[in-house]
From TrEMBL:
It comes from the Bacteria. This is NAD-dependent epimerase/dehydratase family protein. Pfam families: Epimerase. InterPro entries: Epimerase_deHydtase (IPR001509), Lipid_A_modif_metabolic_enz (IPR050177), NAD(P)-bd_dom_sf (IPR036291). It comes from Holdemania filiformis. Residues 7-224 form the NAD-dependent epimerase/dehydratase domain. Coiled coil: none annotated. SUPFAM superfamilies: NAD(P)-binding Rossmann-fold domains (SSF51735). The lineage of its organism: Bacteria, Bacillati, Bacillota, Erysipelotrichia, Erysipelotrichales.
């Protein structure tokens, strides 16, 4: 099996590395801080037919990790922005279908498309996207389902862990750890009592591999830990494990913020037998070790 990942950011780089244990992987996309680390990167604009001509997609699994909008994106004309995203994906999916791709895996946002959910929420629940970013994900889901190309839509929780560049961190956990170790203040954009569902990057890669092994397609699947963890709990855990207090500065968000979300993963378990291997406590310990090692290397 060959897997081509679209986008060489945090997810693309780490998934390519983890999935390469069982498949040939290649990353295509635009240059990023991660591209110098990749031996299998090709500079390709995924939304250019001329560039796509340089890639053989026949019988390939395509994993899309591109995000056309940031999670704090705003627009004076939201409909125009959303239509622009739709058109890009209509083009891409048509190209992949014509070129014989086997399967298209899309990273949707389980943390935002449902809105607030205090109890584990299932894939068939009504969607309540409250930000432009979340609405872009739901619109892409519609385009994908109508494309005629075999697909998997993964409604992903908050991933963390794995290699990250020093200038941009993925999510609150590594940022809190770095602030603790460097004795810097942390800007908190949400309520300390707000809760999220976090999944360690190796567990996420395992879920994808299991879905591929079981040849699952044309499904929408939550990928998460099914455990809600509040910002306060993460803050306490990081402070305890690092032995450092963190100064908190509360900042108002410019976009609406989901207060509580936890995803139900019974469908993923039923389809694949998936189980979480890394608890949030274990993941935080792994992140502290990784970041300390990286900081030690930088100081040298």
């Amino acid at each position: 099996m060959k897997i081509i990942l679209l986008g060489c950011g945090y997810l693309g780089y780490n998934l390519a590395s983890l999935l390469s244990q069982k498949a040939e992987t290649e990353i295509i996309g635009l240059p990023s801080p991660y591209t110098p680390l990749c031996s299998n990167f090709k500079e390709i604009n995924a939304f250019s037919a001329k560039d796509l001509d340089q890639v053989d997609f026949e019988d390939v699994v395509v994993i899309d990790t591109i995000s056309l909008l940031a999670n704090n994106a705003r627009s004076e004309d939201e409909e125009k922005t959303l239509r622009g995203v739709e058109e890009k994906y209509e083009f891409l999916l048509c190209q992949l279908k014509q070129r014989g791709a086997r399967l298209f895996i899309f990273m949707s946002s389980g943390g935002t498309v449902y809105g607030n959910a205090a109890e584990p929420i299932c894939e068939d629940a009504p969607l309540h996207p409250i930000t432009l970013y979340a609405r872009s994900k739901t619109r892409c889901e519609q385009v994908i389902r109508q494309s005629g190309l075999p697909y998997l839509i993964l409604r992903l929780a908050n991933p963390y862990g794995g290699h990250q560049t020093t200038d941009k961190k993925q999510g609150v956990i590594p940022i809190l750890i770095e602030k603790a170790l460097s004795h810097e203040a942390f800007e908190m954009w949400a309520s300390p009592h707000s809760s999220r569902d976090y999944i360690y990057i190796e567990d996420f890669a395992q879920a994808i591999q299991l879905l591929l092994d079981h040849q699952i397609q044309n499904e929408i699947v939550n990928v998460a830990s099914q455990t809600a963890t509040s910002l306060t709990e993460i803050l306490d855990e990081v402070q305890e494990k690092t032995g450092q207090a963190i100064e908190i500065r509360h900042v108002n968000s410019e976009v609406p913020v989901v207060d509580q979300i936890v995803l139900n993963i019974e469908k993923l378990k039923r389809l694949t037998g998936f189980t979480i291997q890394t608890t949030i406590q274990e993941g935080i310990v792994k992140e502290i070790k990784r970041i300390k090692k990286e900081q030690g290397g930088i100081r040298k």
